[in-house]
Each structure stands twice: as structure tokens, then as C-alpha cells.
């Protein structure tokens, strides 16, 4: 009994608060399966890495040469062959650019929960300038940065873009996403408000990237943009663009870039002070020994802090498993088991209360026999076993056994007849604080008080 008392004390100190702890889902045969088994939002084994969520992301990653990129006029649907950059004077002296059949370069990187796509398009000059300057090509950078979402379905949320050479990066506040569709297409619509000359204009973009095969060795991309009139709500197309892309190795990417920069007349340094702008010179030297493209083509990369605003790795998932729910089968098993356990215990007490003398005699005789034979009949329940036993009797799980709970179990079992007086004796003998119910501590004390032999022979 000494050993048991030590175990009991430890138990009372350590285990009491656990009594009301919530059940876990997915305990085989006991609680209902976890939602994670059917709903990927809850699945902790799926991370936020794009490539783990959808195979399309691995296919899309890589370096691409844009074989041909064409901008179309919104109204006529014609290719734009004569385009004047906003940087040019109005007199037309610097000529125009052809925005049909342009070359370009793309670096798509998928790193864990982040996706960044960077692109250069190079518009060739039409040689229609009136000034005696050999005009360079126009380089048009565009970066877009995305993070995974909590959805874990491969959807990417737009963190922000650089269109043109930017001097600052601003994370977008709108919830714009692109998502893989059918294993071969990236599809997205975006909507955001841009301040154009002091007026807030809503811009909507529809875009797709379609891959011709599993590795996306060849793809087409398409983009349409609309503006929404803030007063009338009318939508106007501002044009659309198509491109054909081919995936290449790094060496070919740099070699082709060098070739295109040379052919279209992009100088290393500005030709004249008037053309001293990143739009009219090489952004870097692709013919260098170990060429290195800028980290972000449009100039400004998001900071780590920017990334973390949307990166789910740094957020708290809204998807939390609700507490476990017992299966129907388990509830049936528990009630039968708890009746038997309770019956065994209360039968002992019943006998001790009503047939106290007989029990005492029996105890004395058993004790003598055990002593004479040098037997130890010490049996200890582990704290966990005892707690489990208590919980299985506590039908309403309030942490206390009521007289009604005790009565109900004994009656249901129907193996002994107990009068109200018997219950009075029983409860009086175990309810130490006299509040009419049996707490876990009282239950433990009661169990510890039952002679070991009774545990064996009567239970
Ligand atoms: C963002 O949009 C997606 C797709 O429409 C939606 O499932 C998600 O709940 C949205 N997230 C937020 C934070 O609004
Ligand atoms: C493509 O982008 C990744 C990520 O920024 C970078 O590590 C890699 O060097 C880039 N590739 C080239 C050829 O510039």
C-alpha cells in the first residue's frame, strides 16, 4: 500500500487539471477521423510550398525565351507597330517603337511558398526619328511576386508587381490570385485600383499561361487589361497581349539575350544624356564571363518584411481541427465497460459497508495467509489507468461522480440490489468532503483504501 500511496500523491498533484482536456480527433476506433483526412486545408503534412501543393509549379519554373510577344490595340484589335513612350517629347523627333513580334526573357522561380516571375520585353525602334541619333531599343521590365495561400491548393496570391523600372516596392492590399488549372494552365484575374493623374481607376486583368507539355517546354501566355470608369462603371479594354515562350537552359538564355541586346541596339551606357535612362540601355552584360541578371528586373525587390505580410509561413492558419468527436461504436463500448468497472468497485464497497464484519474477518484471514506464505499481493494501477477508469464512470464528464451516476451504473448492470440506505453508507464512506459527490481525489483515496485482496477476489 505504501507504494501505491506515493503513486497516488504524485497522481493527484500532476493529473487533476487533465480531466477536462479535449479529445483528439483521429484516434483509431475511438474518435471520428480528423478533417485533415479529407480536407487539405487542415492537413499539416502538406506545407505551404507550391511544388508540394500542385505539380504544375515545378513545370512552370525555369528560364524562358519569349520567341514572340505582341501587343494589340484595344479598339481595332490590330498589332501595335507604332508606339511612342511617355518619356519621349511630343514632337515625334525621337520616333516610335514596334510592339509586335518582340523578343523577351523570363525567369520563373518557385521557392517554397514564394513565386516570382521576372520578364524583359524588348521593343525595337522603327528608325523613324528625325534627330541624328541612332535610337536604341526600349527595354520593358515586369516583375510579379506571389506567395502561397492558406488554402494549400496551389493558389498563389499576388504580393505586388513592378511594371517598368520602379524606385519603390509597394505590397498590394487586394486579394488577387492566380491558380493552376487542369495541370497545364495558370489562370488568374486581378483587380486593383491605380491612381492615374489624381483619379482612382480600377484596373482588371485577365491572364493565362498555357503549357503545351508536362515540362512546359513550350507555352503561350495571354493578357487582357480593362479599366473601369469610376463614375459610370463602364469597362474599357486597354489592349491585350500574346506571347509564345520556349524553355531554355541558362547558357542559351544568356546567349540569346546577348544576341537580342546587340541586334536591337541596346548600348552598355547611354548614347546621349537625353537617353540616359534604364529603358534605353542594357540592364547588365549577358556576355560577361559569369553573367548575372538583376535579382528583380524592374529594379526594386520586395523586402523580407514585404514577403511576410502574405507568406502563410509567417501567419496563423485559419484552419484548426475542431476537438475530437467520439465515434458511435466507442460510446457503446465505453458505457458497457464503465458499467462493469463501476459495478466491480461498488460491489466491493457495498459488501464492506453492509457486511463490514464479514469483510474484516475475511481481510484478516487473507492477510494472515498471505503473510504466512510470504506472498505479496500488492497491485498498483498506474495514474493513467486510474484516471481512465474515473473518466469512464463520469458519464457527464464534469469531473465529479454524482450519486445519480453511481446509482444509474449499478442499476443498469443489474447484478446487485442496493437500497437507498446502502447508497447512503457507500457514499458516506467515500465522500471525504461531504459535498455529496465523488471527486477524482476522493475516488483515488477510496481506491487506495480498498484492501488489495478485495481488489483481486471480489472485483
Ligand atoms: C482570397 O481569395 C480567395 C479566392 O477567392 C479566397 O478563397 C480567400 O479566402 C481570400 N482570402 C482573403 C484573406 O480574403
Ligand atoms: C533566376 O532567379 C533565381 C531566383 O532569384 C536566381 O537564383 C537565378 O540565378 C536566376 N537565373 C538567372 C539565369 O538569372
Automatic annotation (TrEMBL):
<dbReference type="InterPro" id="IPR018247">
    <property type="entry name" value="EF_Hand_1_Ca_BS"/>
</dbReference>
<keyword id="KW-1133">Transmembrane helix</keyword>
<protein>
    <recommendedName>
        <fullName>EF-hand domain-containing protein</fullName>
    </recommendedName>
</protein>
<dbReference type="InterPro" id="IPR011992">
    <property type="entry name" value="EF-hand-dom_pair"/>
</dbReference>
<keyword id="KW-0472">Membrane</keyword>
<dbReference type="InterPro" id="IPR002048">
    <property type="entry name" value="EF_hand_dom"/>
</dbReference>
<feature type="transmembrane region" description="Helical">
    <location>
        <begin position="325"/>
        <end position="350"/>
    </location>
</feature>
<keyword id="KW-0106">Calcium</keyword>
<feature type="domain" description="EF-hand">
    <location>
        <begin position="418"/>
        <end position="453"/>
    </location>
</feature>
<keyword id="KW-0732">Signal</keyword>
<keyword id="KW-0812">Transmembrane</keyword>
<feature type="signal peptide">
    <location>
        <begin position="1"/>
        <end position="22"/>
    </location>
</feature>
<dbReference type="GO" id="GO:0005509">
    <property type="term" value="F:calcium ion binding"/>
</dbReference>
<dbReference type="Pfam" id="PF13499">
    <property type="entry name" value="EF-hand_7"/>
</dbReference>
<feature type="domain" description="EF-hand">
    <location>
        <begin position="381"/>
        <end position="416"/>
    </location>
</feature>
